[in-house]
Design a protein that fits this description.
It is a single chain. With about 325 residues, the chain is of the alpha/beta class. It has one domain (about 35-330): Bacterial extracellular solute-binding protein, family 7 (D-Maltodextrin-Binding Protein, domain 2), CATH 3.40.190.170. About 45% of the residues lie in helices and about 20% in strands. The chain has 13 helices and nine strands. It has helices at about 5-30, 50-60, 80-85, 95-105, 120-125, 130-140, 180-190, 205-210, 220-225, 250-255, 260-290, 300-315, 325-330, and strands spanning about 35-40, 65-70, 90-95, 145-160, 175-180, 195, 215-220, 235-250, 295-300. Strands 1, 2, 3, 4, 5, 6, 7, 8 and 9 form a nine-stranded mixed β-sheet that branches. α2 (about 50-60) packs antiparallel against α11 (about 260-290). The longest helix has about 35 residues, at about 260-290. The structure holds 3-deoxy-alpha-D-manno-oct-2-ulopyranosonic acid. 3-deoxy-alpha-D-manno-oct-2-ulopyranosonic acid (KDO) binds near residues 94, 179 and 221.
């Protein structure tokens, strides 16, 4: 008996075999180029987050992907990265709650000053059910996956001049640079300042020329960007226990094998934990550096800043978009 195999059948079988090969082993193993993961950020190459990702994350995924970071806003401008990922023009970014809140109003809860107590609270919130739900919202609404949370440092006021700041009232009339979204500008007002938007990459010159009277960032960032060269004081308001999220294209994610997805996830988590620990350790020792550079570093009446900010957030339009009961769940998270 002869079995007749038509031409069509042969082509069909070959196609199935080829697709199966790709699906089972991924494009890299199928002899294709590695997947390119371009990451865009306003941060410098020496920033702790940049360094952690360029080593731990890049090495972790190197079997099938090439991590290609672009620093100092050189690929996409600050605040445009998430839309670029959603549209398929970029694979990764280091994003923030403020940028997410611009596109998904529920996320504005995480932009509130004096909400997170410390880095441990932040991790408890995002690595538990709240994180799962809020990450899913981003995936559903934006087609962007948030892989991990990293502590970015606690934001402090960094000002020119020698006016002593004790309460939010002392900030009246101070032109404080805040990043250019509504959530950041509101935080500037909650601190009692006159906020003005400016891109991160322009802050040093803004301080140098006196276009702005000050800015706010975590201490390691102030050192990395040399803001101490053009300012006179740091006021330890600790107004935002700041965090970033590693954002990843869902389209790219969906094209990975389950093993590759796991490797991406594990590498992101490992890098984010290392980055968080490095930043925390650095913050603890860095005050002496600024003092040696001639800056005054002191703690104001933090309770006065906290009560003004909390009241303003609760009365704000932002709070109308906060999911029912989420504030209480965040406060209770341990
Ligand atoms: C900034 O513009 O001040 C800020 O610190 C805001 C953060 O959310 C984050 O985007 C950060 O800039 C950039 O990663 C540059 O460090």
């Amino acid at each position: 008996m002869t079995i007749h195999i038509g031409r069509r059948t042969i082509i069909g079988a070959a196609t199935i075999a080829l697709l199966a090969g790709i699906a089972l082993t991924g494009p890299a193993a199928a002899g294709q180029d590695k997947i390119k993961l371009r990451m865009s950020t306003p941060a410098s190459a020496t920033d702790f987050r940049s360094q952690g990702l360029a080593t731990t994350f890049a090495e972790g995924v190197s079997g099938f992907a090439t991590y290609e970071p672009h620093y100092n806003d050189s690929l996409f401008k600050q605040g445009t990265e998430l839309v670029a990922i959603a549209r398929g023009n970029l694979e990764m970014s280091i994003t923030s709650a403020q940028e997410l809140a611009k596109l998904i109003p529920e996320w504005s809860i995480f932009t509130a000053g004096y909400l997170m107590r410390d880095p441990a609270h932040q991790r408890a919130v995002f690595e538990g059910d709240i994180g799962k739900e809020m990450y899913q919202l981003v995936e559903d609404k934006l087609g962007v996956k948030l892989l991990s949370v990293m502590y970015f440092g606690t934001r402090q006021l960094n000002l020119r001049g020698d006016k002593v700041i004790n309460t939010p009232e002392d900030m009246a009339g101070i032109k404080l640079r805040m990043p250019g979204t509504d959530a950041w500008q509101f935080l500037g007002r909650a601190l009692g300042a006159n906020p003005t938007p400016m891109a991160f990459t322009e802050v040093y010159t803004g301080l140098q020329t006196g276009t702005i009277d000050g800015q706010d960032n975590p201490l390691p960032t102030n050192k990395d960007r040399k803001f101490y060269e053009v300012t006179d004081q740091i006021v330890l308001t600790s107004h935002l226990v700041d965090m970033n999220f590693l954002a990843f294209s869902k389209t790219v994610w969906d094209g990975l094998t389950p093993e590759q997805q796991q490797t991406v996830q594990d590498s992101a988590q490992r890098a984010s934990l290392e980055i968080s620990e490095t930043i925390l350790a650095n913050e603890a020792e860095i005050v002496e550096f600024f003092k040696a550079e001639g800056l005054k570093v002191y703690t104001p009446d933090v309770d006065a800043f906290r009560s003004r900010a909390q009241k303003m957030y609760l009365e704000s339009d932002f709070s109308k978009d906060w999911p029912e009961g989420l504030l209480e769940r965040i406060n209770a998270a341990k």
